[in-house]
Amino acid sequence: xxxxxxxxxxxxxxxxxxxxxxxxxxxxxxxxxxxxxxxxxxxxxxxxxxxxxxxxxxxxxxxxxxxxxxxxxxxxxxxxxxxxxxxxxxxxxxxxxxxxxxxxxxxxxxxxxxxxxxxxxxxxxxxxxxxxxxxxxxxxxxxxxxxxxxxxxxxxxxxxxxxxxxxxxxxxxxxxxxxxxxxxxxxxxxxxxxxxxxxxxxxxxxxxxxxxxxxxxxxxxxxxxxxxxxxxxxxxxxxxxxxxxxxxxxxxxxxxx
Amino acid sequence: xxxxxxxxxxxxxxxxxxxxxxxxxxxxxxxxxxxxxxxxxxxxxxxxxxxxxxxxxxxxxxxxxxxxxxxxxxxxxxxxxxxxxxxxxxxxxxxxxxxxxxxxxxxxxxxxxxxxxxxxxxxxxxxxxxxxxxxxxxxxxxxxxxxxxxxxxxxxxxxxxxxxxxxxxxxxxxxxxxxxxxxxxxxxxxxxxxxxxxxxxxxxxxxxxxxxxxxxxxxxxxxxxxxxxxxxxxxxxxxxxxxxxxxxxxxxxxxxx
DNA sequence: TCAAATGTCTCTATAATAGAACCGTAATTG
DNA sequence: CAATTACGGTTCTATTATAGAGACATTTGA
Lengths: 257, 257
Known about the structure:
Two copies of one chain form a homodimer.
Chain A: H1 4-13, H2 25-32, H3 36-48, E1 52-54, E2 61-63, H4 66-78, H5 84-95, E3 98-105, E4 108-115, E5 130-132, H6 136-144, H7 148-156, H8 170-183, E6 186-189, E7 196-204, E8 210-219, H9 229-249
Antiparallel strand pairs in A: 1-2, 3-4, 3-8, 4-5, 6-7, 7-8
Helix pairs in contact in A: 2-3, 5-9, 6-8
Chain A binds a DNA duplex (30 and 30 nucleotides) through α2 and α3.
C-alpha cells in the first residue's frame, strides 16, 4: 500500500519537465484537473523544503536546487565517468556518431551517460531522459533480454505510438524482440524520432540479467547500408565488451544486481 | 499551511546522503525515531514512482534514477557551462586553485559549478553541496550582502560549529559580515574545513540583490600571504565582473530575480 | 473601468494516515 | 543446531490530516 498524498505530490512534480519548467498554481491545477487548493498546498510544501522555488514576482514555481544535490549523488553512485565514459568517447570517435548508455528503470530506459559525436549534425540527448521500453534501439535492446513476464508487463503498461514507425502491436513487438535477442543487437530507424537511426547492444549484471544497453544513434540520412551495418555492430559490441568487463570486474552493484 | 505527509516524506528523503546512501526500513525508522510502518509506506511510495529503488536482495533503499532527470533539468536551466564555466576555468588556471560558484538557496549556499585546480593537492567539492550560510568564505560573502533581517533569520536558524574556527557568536558574526560588506570580499581559513582557505566575492541580480558568490579555495598551507592576498582578490574580482556582466546582459532570470 | 484570472487562506465532512500489533522469513548467536 | 533477534511487509481502527468548495485581495488585460 502506498501513501496517497505523497503519491499525488510526486505526480504533480512530474509535470515539471524540460518542455514545461514553470507552473502557476491554477495553471497546473487546470492541466491536472485537480482543485487549485490541493495543488497550492503541494507546491508550497515542496517549496518549503527547497525542492521547488517560487519566483517572487511571477509567483510561478520551478524546480529547486535540492535536485542538483540528489542528481549528483545518483551520478556519483553510478560512477561511469572514470572508466565507461572514455570507452564511449572512443567509440563515438571511431563511428563518428553519438554513443549513449541507457539504464533499465521499471518500464522505462533512462539515459545515464552520453558521448556526443563530433560531427555538426548529430544525435543529441540529455542525461536523465526517460523513454518507454518499447521505443527505439536503446530500449528495445533491453526489453528483448527481459523475461517474458516483464515483456508482457511493459506491453500492458501501454505502448504509445510516438512516430509512424513505433511498433505498438504486441505480436509484432514480440517477434521483433525475439529477433533482437537471437542476433544480439537491435537496429531501428525512425522509431524514437522520425529522423534518427539507432543501433543497440545489451549489457548484463553478474547474474546475466540485462540491466542496460549501449547504443549509437545519428541522423537517418547517415544510417548504415546493409553492408556497413555488421561492421558498425562489431565496433559497438567491442565497446560493450569492454564496459561489460568493467561491470563484471568491479561487481557493479548499483541497481538490479 | 503545508502538507504534513509530504513534509515528513521529504524529510525522510533527506536522510539519503553521500555519507549514508542506503537505508533499510527499520534502520531509518530507528534513526528518525519513527514507527517503521510509516517509513515503510513512505519508502515504498517513493520507490513506486522511481525516486527510490530497492535492492532486490538486501531490500535496502537508495536514490533512484528519477533524480538524474531532475538534476539535469536544474543544471540546464542554470545554463552556466557555456559562458560562466570557461571564465571559472581561466581563473582556476591563473590562480592555480579550485574555483566554485555558490548559489543562495534559503539559509544555505549550494555549489552549482566548479572549476578544479590542476594541482595534485586541491580543494574538491561536489555539485549540489549544501552549506549553512554562516560557514566559510563562499557563504559568508553571500550572507554579508543580505538585508539585516535575513541575516538575523539565518543566525536564528542555528549556527553550528563545524570546526574550531567557525564563528557562532551573533555579535562576532555581524561584525565580520560588516567588514566583508565594506571591503567587498571575504577571506577565511579553516572555517569550513580545518585545512582549507577560501576567498569569495559576491554576485548580484539586476535589482542589486546578492544571489551568489564566486570563490577560490585551496589547502591552507598554500594560503596567500598578506601581501599576496590583494592580488588574488583582484584576479577573482575580475572574473566575477565578467560573470556579473553575463548575468546582467542576459537578464539572468533563474532564482531570486 | 470592469471582468476575469491569479495566489492564498479558511472551513468542515470525509477519507487517509499513524502507530501498535502481528506475520513469515532470514540472519545471528549461545 | 536450536533459540532468539531482527528484518520487510501487512492488517487494523482511532485519530488526524486532507480534499474541495468557496471567499478574498490583488493583479492582469480588455
